[in-house]
TrEMBL record:
L-glutamine binds at D99. It comes from Holospora undulata HU1. Belongs to the asparagine synthetase family. One of its GO terms (cellular component) is cytosol. This is asparagine synthase (glutamine-hydrolyzing). GO terms for molecular function: asparagine synthase (glutamine-hydrolyzing) activity; ATP binding. GO terms for biological process: asparagine biosynthetic process. The active site is at C2 (for gatase activity). Residues 2-212 form the Glutamine amidotransferase type-2 domain. Its EC number is 6.3.5.4. Keywords: Amino-acid biosynthesis, Asparagine biosynthesis, ATP-binding, Glutamine amidotransferase, Nucleotide-binding. The keyword Nucleotide-binding applies.
């Protein structure tokens, strides 16, 4: 695990060395154990290393002497030992024991098609002087970020945007379209970033840069397709899931030469990961949880502790205060690179910091809700089942019924019901609210952006379509982005078994009744996972309501931290972008106790602090 960076441009070897050193210095937190770089006239690349596999011999860049091909790599290839054994059988000799050299040697055998053989999370740069190409490759689900900047003079890339900014003569302009989407989504969606001309390489894609022509092309090598199948009575879905999930957990436990722990929230997903680890024979491992001084409804520590006692782990807890939460915000917006208004990001940093004192690698439960239909999708599925029954009625009849939901059905029809209503995880500011608030406009509405996510679905089932939308954007740019940035800020590697691509492909075709249940069986979220959990974890954890990562900050900014909120919304950093009277109106509504307004205000607080920190 590490951070990578590189640059193509008009410079000599000495300047290239200077540039790559600057780019690496700002991401040292991603890999404090060592760094390595290489420069020639016109090209330089390097990495910061967090030693996980082959601690003594895995430093990068790694080179093939005969071809001159070099590689820097961020991530883990979980099946590298299997690939290595196959390559050794064909006569390939290795000089290290790390997965990086396996990537390099398989590329030399298969070319860019080698990426189809890799199981893992990765951001890869391959430099091939023989064909004068640089390849950037991002993993299938987007667990590891990879950014690039391309203009007529240079091509720059890195694991974090801050590396790229170090290599540019001046900061790019703020991307107003990205800012517009952020206000609704609370994150900046790919392929753009908050900066003009700085882009994200999309998950499941690779970029090919021609060093001679100075052109780049982007190709897709994998995509997810949620299209639930009809249930087959002869198939044992529970056994199939058990096999795939245990394999996914085991891969992430074994691919390490250092101790591995688990972030344990006390919820179903992380508890299942912990139970799987015990079942696979991993005893006395470390688990980590976080709570708040407020306690009450925001305290999940009792559930986490109960699970830790149940599996016999070495359990560690950290409790953070209101002051710790707010004092960290400026550091948070620096580590995050872009505005990201997910409240759980900050406690994730603190629990990662705790974990990094004991282990270098942790597993977590991210991805289960998106791939197995969690959150409140049982409620949605029940509603959709009734709408499906009423869909036979003519639209002229539905329009006259005194229910808005049926009037919407008359316009969209059952198949497009969620798409036409732009149903999504986040909707912090509506289009109309943004038009009133903002001093700028955007070419594309966030509502249309969400509809575009639905349009990529090939399924006629709305739940499939919603999962497709979630996994394309929300999962990548909110959950996985905060997981990567906050864990790497503490030099900790975070692995996500639920996003093993073989397991995800299986989940994508899983019958809906094994995800959300049915009218006949009772609607429930993640039915297949609950079935797995029944024999493995305490019942009260299985049946407790989904809370996400409960954080009391919305309550804080309506009371103790109201002055803090006021200070940020009245700061000069927001004057360029928003109407002052609308900001004042939001503060008044916040004071009156409107919870939705608290979400909006938090979005703007994060943005205010981000603008100040980055001088945007």
């Amino acid at each position: 695990m590490c951070g990578i960076a590189g640059i193509v441009g008009s410079f000599d070897q000495a300047l290239g060395t200077e540039l790559i050193q600057k780019m690496l210095s700002v991401i040292e937190h991603r890999g404090p154990d060592s760094n390595g770089y290489w420069s020639r006239n016109g090209f330089a690349f390097g990495m910061q290393r967090l030693s996980i596999i082959d601690i003594a011999g895995g430093d990068q860049p790694i080179w093939d002497k005969e071809s001159g091909v070099g590689i820097v790599f961020n991530g883990e290839i979980y099946n590298f030992k299997k690939i290595r054994a196959s390559l050794e059988t064909s006569g390939i000799k290795f000089h290290t024991h790390c997965d990086t050299e396996v990537i390099l040697q398989l590329y030399l055998q298969k070319g860019i098609a080698a990426i189809h053989d890799f199981e893992g999370m990765f951001g890869i740069c391959l430099y091939d002087p023989g064909i004068q190409k640089v390849f950037l490759i991002r993993d299938r689900l987007g667990v590891k970020p990879l950014y690039y900047y391309h203009d007529q003079k240079s091509f720059v890339f890195g694991s974090e945007i801050k590396s790229i900014l170090e290599a540019l003569p001046q900061k790019p302009e703020l991307n107003k379209q990205s800012l517009w989407h952020y206000l609704t989504l609370r994150y900046v969606p790919f392929p753009e970033t908050i900066w003009e001309n700085v882009c994200k390489l999309e998950p499941g894609h690779y970029l090919e840069y021609d060093l001679t022509a100075h052109t780049s092309t982007i190709s897709k090598y994998w995509e997810i397709n949620f299209c639930s199948e009809k249930s087959v009575k002869t198939r044992d879905y529970e056994k199939e899931f058990e096999t795939l999930f245990l394999e996914a957990v085991e891969k992430r436990l074994l691919a390490s030469d250092v101790p591995v722990g688990i972030l344990l929230s006390g919820g179903l997903d992380s508890s299942c990961v912990a139970a799987a680890a015990v079942e696979l024979g991993h005893k006395n491992f470390h688990t980590f949880s976080i709570g708040f001084e407020d306690g009450g409804q925001f305290n999940e520590l009792p559930y986490a502790k109960k699970m830790a006692e149940y599996i016999g782990s070495n359990h560690h807890e950290v409790i953070i205060s209101q002051n710790q939460f707010t004092d960290f915000i400026d550091e948070f917006v620096w580590y995050a690179d872009e505005p990201l208004a997910d409240l759980a990001s900050i406690p994730l940093y603190f629990v990662s910091k705790l974990a990094s004192k004991h282990v270098k690698v942790v597993l977590s439960g991210e991805g289960a809700d998106e791939t197995l239909a969690g959150y409140n999708l049982d409620v949605l599925a029940k509603k959709l089942s009734y709408l499906k029954l009423l869909n036979f009625l003519p639209s002229c009849v539905l329009k006259r019924l005194p229910f808005a939901i049926l009037q919407n059905l008359s316009t969209s029809g059952y198949i497009s019901f969620l798409k036409e209503n732009a149903t999504y995880m986040t909707n912090i500011f509506s289009e109309d609210e943004k038009k009133k608030l903002c001093l700028f406009s955007a070419q594309k509405s966030s509502r249309e952006y969400i509809k575009d996510l639905y349009r990529k679905s090939r399924s006629r089932e709305p739940i499939d379509q919603l999962q497709q939308a979630y996994c394309q954007s929300w999962l990548v740019e909110d959950l996985l982005m905060k997981a990567d940035k906050m864990s790497m800020a503490t030099s900790l590697e975070l692995r996500v078994p639920f996003l093993d691509h073989k397991l995800v492909e299986w989940c994508a075709t899983l019958p809906l009744e094994w995800k959300v249940g049915s009218l006949a069986r009772r609607f429930t979220t993640k039915r297949i996972l609950r079935s797995f959990a029944e024999k493995r974890i305490p019942k009260e954890i299985i049946t407790r309501p989904k809370q996400g990562f409960p954080v009391p900050a919305y309550k804080w900014i309506q009371s103790d931290l109201f002055d803090f909120a006021k200070e940020n919304l009245e700061s000069k950093s927001l004057e360029t972008f928003f109407h002052k009277d609308e900001l004042s109106s939001l503060l008044q509504k916040l004071k009156d106790g409107d919870l939705h307004i608290a979400h909006q205000v938090w979005n703007l607080i994060v943005l205010s602090r981000w603008i100040n920190k980055w001088n945007a």
